[in-house]
Amino acid sequence: MFRQLLHSLSPSLVHSGRRNSLAYITNRALFSTQTTATAKMSLEEAKKCAAYKAVDEYVKDNTVVGVGSGSTVVYAVHRIAERVKAEGLKLVCIPTSFQARQLIIEHGLVLGDLECNPRLDCAIDGADEVDAKMVLIKGGGGCLLQEKIVASCADRLVVIADYTKDSAKLGQQYRKGIPIEVAPMAYVPIKGKVESRFGGTLKLRMAVAKAGPVVTDNGNFILDWSFPADKEHDWDAVNRDIMMIPGVVDTGLFVGMATKAYFGQQDGSVTERSA
Length: 275
Prior knowledge:
This protein is an alpha/beta fold. The protein has a single domain, classed as Rossmann fold (3-Layer(aba) Sandwich), CATH 3.40.50. It contains eight helices and 13 strands. The strands form three sheets. It has a six-stranded mixed sheet, with helices on both faces. β4 (about 130) and β5 form a beta hairpin. α3 packs across α4. It is globular and about 55 Å long. The model is unreliable at about 1-20 and about 20-40 (pLDDT under 50).
């Protein structure tokens, strides 16, 4: 690598000695690091902008709010807590996962459940990808079942995401596939049936910090389906067909559920899409 960088230097720098060459390499590496950091900050700022705008427009006093999962939702909960403190809002927050539950508790918000609050005014959640028809892929974090249950109980599902989650069609940007939550004993036959009927490949999601597969909050496994991207799909029909396979608990396809999506952009603006 050192020799490759030396070839990229001007002749004057090369002949000025080792000290100048090393200084050039150091400065070049520092510039690269700073550029990468700026890009990451831009992405986080985009998430924050989308989350703040959604909370400001949809969270009202004396309502029940579903709190989704994922990195973008962290900003939404922070904004909800700010508004509760500043405006004295009375809210009950329903979590979609262990992570969401902890966020609600840590921010001093009122924690509720579906037993006492079976109807929600709105749910605010992230997405791994949103297509032009407002079909979502969710479940990259493994919380798809509880996310879909909470969303189904809400009058409005509001999606918050950064610009990298906005696609014309599913699979355009998100390449990890559609998550399918399954009963552990059935994952092999389900894998074969989906591949045979719809094509593509299914892979059992493996854990990172433990041996073996990922186990969801509900004690199930997740199959990630890399579907054929070279053909059009009727995602409503595909979702219904997969759900009919014995052992399938739920899918990460959210069809006809989202009311509105907010996409934070690199420049700090927010674009919107309605169902």
